[in-house]
Design brief:
There is one protein chain. By secondary structure, the chain is of the alpha+beta class. Helices cover about 15% and strands about 40% of the residues. The chain folds into 4 domains: about 90 residues, Sandwich (Immunoglobulin-like), CATH 2.60.40.10; about 90 residues, Immunoglobulin-like (Sandwich), CATH 2.60.40.10; about 100 residues, Immunoglobulins (Immunoglobulin-like); about 35 residues. The chain starts with a helix and ends with a helix. The radius of gyration is 35 Å and the shape is flat.
Length: about 375
């Protein structure tokens, strides 16, 4: 019996030895072609936002040695707020602003001295989470309220609140009155329209009557307080028409003929006119093209050159009390294409240059070939 057992052990040992010699190739290598997943989760606590994520496996093989934690409030101000070593899986953010939406981003950082077996760097591992806020309430009041007076009309602009209350601002309410005590709601504007700089137009007003405006912000909790109020007085404004005299293909030069007329205003005197061009909403800024005296007659020729060869034209009537009133916008000046004509298209010039060099190389090669054949 002992002999049988001994023979069996010898046979098993021989088979295992043959397997290790001819077939076993060592432990299966880890697949490092893809980084490990970082599943970041953020929860609200009474005094902080708690960040938690999964432990990364094989951290030594990945060459990862710490986590960097980032926070942003508007997707444009990503700021590093802390770091922990690779064996931590949580972070407490006590510094986050209350009642304000934020986003988090976590990055597993690799040791610069650790490389993959092929000599290249490992792929980074990262995760993100948001939006989330610490606490929720109504938003702050909007800011930056401004107005553009027009003929029996006012265009109102404003900025969103700095603190959104921990919920998306969905819309804005516009209030108007002939005194600060008589403000009533006259309309609303979507949050998206305000984000893109669109104006709220309040129409059918009485010229030379002063109006007061204020704006509030709505989120899912409720309506904010009113913004700081402003006053504005609509007045008679120029009426303009524009005729294009330059070719449609001349994007960098616009020759215009402008006709305008402006009726008399019995309460204030017009001291002059100014022509502006804007490449966005009025609130984003106006470029003064030319000024004219009060007795200037139309039509006039206007020569617009790059970079102010496109945009939206406005003409204002300037009054003796320092106020002004704007015409309706003329949004027909077309922005030139990004590449522009061939003379301004650097990519086209590079392509032409490469074609010329290639053609010259071919010609030289052909000449050398014929010369060698002749020799």
């Amino acid at each position: 019996m002992a002999a049988v057992l001994l023979a069996t052990l010898l046979i098993v040992s021989a088979v295992l030895s043959l397997y290790f010699v001819f077939y076993y190739e060592g432990p299966v290598p880890r697949d490092h072609s893809h980084p490990p997943a970082l599943d970041l989760n953020v929860t609200e606590k009474s005094d902080r936002l708690q960040l938690e994520w999964n432990l990364i496996p094989w951290d030594n093989e990945w060459g990862l040695y710490k986590f960097n934690i980032y926070r942003c409030y508007n997707a444009e101000d990503m700021v590093k707020i802390g770091e922990v070593d690779i064996y931590h899986t949580s972070y407490r953010d006590y510094e986050v602003q209350r009642y304000r939406m934020c986003w988090y981003y976590i990055e597993a950082v690799q040791d610069p001295h650790v490389l993959r077996p092929d000599g290249s760097n490992y792929s980074p591992a990262f995760g993100s989470f948001g939006p989330i806020s610490l606490g929720k309430r109504t938003a702050d009041a909007p800011s930056g309220l401004s107005a553009c007076p027009m003929d029996e009309k006012v265009a109102i602009y404003w900025n969103g609140p700095a603190i959104d209350g921990g919920h998306w601002v969905t819309s804005y309410q516009v209030y108007r009155g002939t005194s600060l005590e008589s403000l009533v709601r006259v309309g609303n504007q979507s949050a998206q329209a305000v984000h893109y700089g669109d104006a709220f137009y309040d129409q059918n007003l009485t010229n030379d009557l002063t109006y007061f405006y204020a704006v509030s912000a709505d989120n899912t909790i409720g309506e904010s307080n009113l913004s700081a109020p402003i006053s504005v007085t609509p007045r008679v404004a120029p009426q303009i028409t524009v005729t294009w005299l330059s070719p449609d293909t001349d994007y960098y030069h616009q020759l215009l003929q402008i006709d305008w007329n402006c009726s008399e205003n019995s309460l204030s005197n017009i001291t002059g006119y100014q022509l502006y061009i804007s490449q966005g909403p009025i609130s984003s800024g106006l470029h003064l093209v030319e000024s004219y005296s009060a007795n200037q007659t139309s039509p006039i020729l206007v020569d617009l050159t790059y970079p102010y060869s496109w945009g939206i034209l406005f003409m204002s009537a300037e009054y003796d009390d320092g106020n002004r009133s704007f015409s309706e916008p003329i949004p027909s000046l077309t922005q030139p294409p990004i590449d522009g004509p061939i003379g301004f298209d650097y990519l086209s010039l590079i392509i032409v240059f490469l074609m010329v060099v290639t053609a010259a190389g071919v010609i030289v090669a052909i000449l050398i070939r014929f010369k060698n054949k002749g020799a």
